[in-house]
Amino acid sequence: MSRIERLLNDLKIRFPEKDIQKAGNVILAFRELATVPVSPVYPRGFHPIIRLKKRLGGIDKEVLISPIDLVIVTKANMPAWRRVFDFHLDIDIIERTSIRGVESLLIGNRDNLRRVYSVLSNVIPAMREPPKKLYSFRDEVYLKFEGERFVKLRMIGSTLELGSYNIPLSQLSRIFGRAVFVLDSLFHAKNAAFYRLLFAISLGTFGHFYEFFMKHIYPKLPLEHKEFLEEMHDYRNFLQLLYFHLSRMNVDRIENEVGILIRRRSRPERPLELGIIFKEGRVDVSDRIMRAQVTLLV
Asked: Are the C-beta atoms of residues 64 and 14 closer than 8 Å to each other?
């Protein structure tokens, strides 16, 4: 008898027979999720524990289970460092399915799963490199790519948080392509990592860079910088020059700020500094920079 079969036999005295198969699916799903480095179940310095719940006789019956060791957890074998994840057999769902041809393992309630289907059905077709597998847990999605590379999307209301594992920004921009613009349109607020990726993608063409500049940078320019642009006969020429230099940057060196130094022939004693700063929820602009990554002479 295998460990999972022994565990399910032990659960038969705690839960109704009709729930045992679902309980087994839950345990195996969490066991698989524990192999995903960007998921909260990944055992990084702690032992993941599932708290299985079932409504019986008007109260919630609870059983603690280790998806790693495949045993029921009691006071006698309770790990010192642990993180507990709730799963209610009457409410929550485990679904193994396919979204746009991508094998998917989804964990959560019906609203969680509906949101995942809606967002990923729009995003995956726009990606240059679709994921090899897709996982979701509550309000988070994990995209797995070849070479143990992962992307995490956390979706709370109209807010999106993006994270990556083992993927430099240059690769991330090639993977997502125009899917970044789809995500940008679906969510109102994004985190700094997303805006870095949006900036890197915008360097693909002058048209995309122009849109990024006019939406995120131009409205926040200091007065002197705006006057500098407006004094030009056609400031698109300046933006094309700026794009020429930025598009040759090594985007993997971009952190939270891109520093631009503009040296003016008309006022050589007073160069303009322009900082593009990626923050939580927005892109900011500063007239002071830490260091110049791009220098222009106009």
From this structure: no
Paired tokens of 226: 């705006």
CA 261, chain centre distance (Å):
32
What single string gives the DSSP state of each residue in 43-91? -SSSEEEEEEEEEETTEEEEEEEETTTTEE--TTS--SSEEEEEEETTT
The per-residue pLDDT for 167 is: 97
- Residue 59 to residues 62, 72, 85, 214: CA-CA distances in angstroms? 10, 20, 19, 57
**CA gap 239, 236 in Å, rounded:** 5
With cut-offs at 50, 70 and 90, classify the pLDDT of residue 159: very high
State the pLDDT at residue 254.
93
How many CA atoms are closer than 13 Å to the CA of 53, on its beta-carbon side? 14
pLDDT at 267: 82
Selection from 182, 178, 180, 138 nearest residue 162 by Cα:
180
Q: Quick one: average pLDDT of 56-70?
A: 94
Host H or E run for residue 234: none
Please give the Cα distance from 180 to 202 (Å, whole number): 10
